[in-house]
Each structure stands twice: as structure tokens, then as C-alpha cells.
Amino acid sequence: MKGDPIPETDTVSRYCPFGRLSEAGRPTIAAFQMRDSDLVGTNPHLSVNWLEYFRDKSRDEQIAEIREVFVRKMQRVGGQAKFALAKVSEIHEKVKEVGREVRILHWPVVEDNDDSHAGIFDIDNDFDVIAQALSRMNFEMVAAKAE
Amino acid sequence: VEENMPVAECYTPTASDYVRAQKCASRDAITDIEGTEREDLQLQPEDVQRLLKLTQEILKFAKIRDEFLETDSETESAFDQLQEIERNERHQIVKEIEQLPLNDSKRISSRLRALIENVEEEYPEEELLSVASMRDFQKFLRSNNRWVYPDIVVSPNGNIVIEWLIDNKRHLTIEFLGQGMSKIVMIAPDITWKNRVSILSAKVSVESVTEAIKPYDALSWVTR
Question: What is the pTM assigned to this prediction?
Fold first, then answer.
């Protein structure tokens, strides 16, 4: 249901275009920043996708589902873009290291037909410090575009 | 004003508006926009002059707006020209950076070229690489010729972001915001308690970045 917390043991993915990845392919702070215009308004959040939303599917199948969502949503999924995958518990832990707390909630976007969409909330206070902390995580990286 | 609706069609001051305003000026009568006499209002001649001027301004704006709507193709070509100018400027900055007396000037310019190319292709709906941000980055590079090669990326606002991630306790990112300003986010060992970390987030001028990070000994890990 919209607004439910994602279980700690589950995994979320963040879309990282080429321009926000380091040359070594690691997400930088820019991968977790938002446009100034997205930080205003109600419920500003960092968009992620919840892999386990696709129940009874293998990890590869879950990633394939999310790839499809992005093909549908975006004009163009970059050939060098990646998904950064991390456990919810690890995100909480990393953000706590810099003295902040976030909530990771299921937040489907009906207009994009993106049911697995989730959000990292409570980021508007000290947003850059949180974005930088997230960029120090050890992510599992997978190509955003199917080969 | 509804989208694409000529302003003049929404409201064009007419001759009677002027007559009404003139009457107000001579204090013969004050009427509101519906023509009702308003004895309760007391306008001074200078107020009326301001109203007349405002009415003329509205009319002028209406004409400009209507001309704008009639010449869509010309406007489009003006935007194209502007984009072309910015594109050339970006390439010019990259060339200038390539000529800087830095160990990594070629590597930096090559990275910038790759970013420019990919930003245009990968997310056309977002801000392109900001020329003002690139100028500030160039200014920053000029300030010291001993920078360790940083990771160079683009923020969602189209700004250049550079970062040095040494380990979990030493991480510096600088976003060049344009207009000579930059945003620093840093985690570094605390000055007093070496087993603790300090977390900083600040906006400073490009010229002040070095001074801002110096107390945390960050220069030792971002310069050779």
C-alpha cells in the first residue's frame, strides 16, 4: 500500500545516468541529488524502485521488470547508465552515520504505471549531506539497459 | 492569461478607459472597472498619472506578446541560436582547460567532452551543462596547479560537481553553482578529535574554497 515502509531486508535500486557516475562506474553525490524544483512542494523524495515488489521472481527478473519501467518512463535510457542496488537496512545505517534519518516508503506512481516505485523521504533537511553519505555506500551495480 | 491566448484579447485598454482615467484626473468622477461611480475613492493626480502609465504599459506588453505569438518560428530560431552560442562556449572552455598548466588538463578536458556529449544525448529533458558552472570550474582549476585528478560529474541542475573520495572519513565534493559561487560538502577527520569526523555543508565563493577546507587538512589529500 502507498506509504508502507519497505522491509529492512529488501532491496531498492536507484537509476544513475552516465553523467552522475564516476569514471570507475561508482555513483557520486550527483546520483542522489535532485533538481532544485523537485525539492519544493509536498513530500519531496528521492526516487528508487523496490525489487521485491515483484514477488516470486528471481533477481534477474526483478531487474528486467525495472528496466521495462524505465524504458516506458524515459525518452531514452542511457547505454552507460546503471542501477545502483542496496539493501534498505544499509541505507538507514549509512544515513545514521551522518546523524540523519530517512524513511523508505512504497510510493507507486500511477501516471507512470510504476507500481514498484518507492521513495527515500525526509531528505529535504541537509539534503546534500545525505546525498553524499549515500554515495559512499557499497552498491551492487547493474546495467540499466538490457544488453 | 490563458496559455497561448493573446493578451490583447484578454484585456485591451480602450479609449473609454483613458477618458475614465482623465475624468479621475480632473476629479470629475472616479469609476471602477465596471463603470460604477465611486465617491468613496479619493485619488491624487499623481495616482492617476501612475494608472495611466500602467495602462499604457499593459497595452505595450499586450502588443509585444501578440507579436511574439505571431512569430513562433522566428522565436524558435532565436532559441536555436542561443543554444548554438552556448554549445560553442562550452567547447571553447574545454579547449581553454586543455591549455592550463596542469598535470591532468588533457584528462579533465577529455572527461568534460564525454559529459557534454552524454548529457545532451542521455537526458535531453534536463538542464544542459551550465556554461556559468563550467567557467567557475575553470577558475577553480586555475587557482592551484597541484590538484589531484577528481571525479567530475554533472548535477541534476546541470552544474559541474567534482569529488575526491579517499575513504569513509575523507570525502570532499564541490558543486560549481555559477555566478562565482560553489557548494562544498565534506566529511573529514575532526580538527580536535582525530577519531571523530566533522561534516560540513557550506556555500562559499570559488575563490574561498581552498581557505574553507584548509583547517581540515583536506588540501593534503586533494593536492599533490
Answer: 0.78
Counting Cβ atoms within 10 Å, is residue A117 exposed (0-12), middle (13-18) or buried (19+)?
Answer: buried
Q: How far apart are the first and last CA of chain B?
A: 58
For residue A19, the chain B residues in CB contact (below 8 A) are: 115, 118-119, 122-123, 153-154
**pLDDT tens digits, B41-72:** 666 666 766 776 676 666 666 666 666 666 55
Q: Is A23 on the interface with B (CB under 8 A)?
A: yes
Q: Which three cell numbers stand for residue A116?
A: 514498484
Residues B139-163 have a mean pLDDT of: 95
B127: chain A residues, CB-CB within 8 Å: 35
pLDDT surpasses 70 at B76:
no
- Complex ipTM tops 0.90: yes
Alpha helices in chain A (DSSP H): 59-73, 88-97, 127-135
In A5-135 the beta strands, taken as DSSP E runs, fall at: 11-16, 45-50, 82-87, 103-106, 117-121
Which residues are within 8 A (CB) of B15 and not within 5 positions of it... i.e. 6 or more apart?
none
